[in-house]
Request: fold
Amino acid sequence: MTDEAPKPAKKECRVCAELIEGRALKCIHCDSYQDWRRHLGFGTTVLSLLIALVAVATPLIGAIEKFFHVSRAELRFSVQSAQAGVLTVLVTNDGERPGAIAQGTLSFPRGEGAYLRPLSPGGASLTPGGGSTLAHYAVEGRPQAFPNANENCKLSFMITGTDPTRRTYDFDEQPVRCGYLSMLFPEWRFDPDTGKPVPPTK
Reply:
């Protein structure tokens, strides 16, 4: 008498309730997984479609971002020297469009100001990525009350080319220690210990 191998136990599919082999990981009737994968809620076809959609949408997002991006000129300046009534600034364009820095103003702590007239017609113009250039300005006007050396004066320049759709004017402001600008005005003198202005000698 020969021993017959026991037949594997049957179990119900967790999705369609049809009988399947006890060790089966997938139902032969409804193609449903019997483990954790049955909770995903979609088959391989849907998953493939989602992957294809992501692959198509990725470059499309970049194109949409580029379409709505507005290129601008981004000019910045830094003071290089101040002497004999002439202010020299270094102008740099970090943007994507040409721009120009025109006239400006020099404001003093007591509310007074001076006009900065460009010595070159139109000020300084820069192309995108065109490096830096020096711009020279004549200082017209002076304060009645001299500030302390450690107080901040304020430089403000009119910048064009920031909006490609129309000719606009933006103002870039930068604080500068008044003592650094003392060479602009021959009568400015500061006490080296206190930084306070010294009255001009008569």
Notes: The mean pLDDT is 77. The CA atoms of residues 100 and 125 lie 4 Å apart. Residues 75-184 form a domain with the Immunoglobulin-like fold (CATH 2.60.40.10).
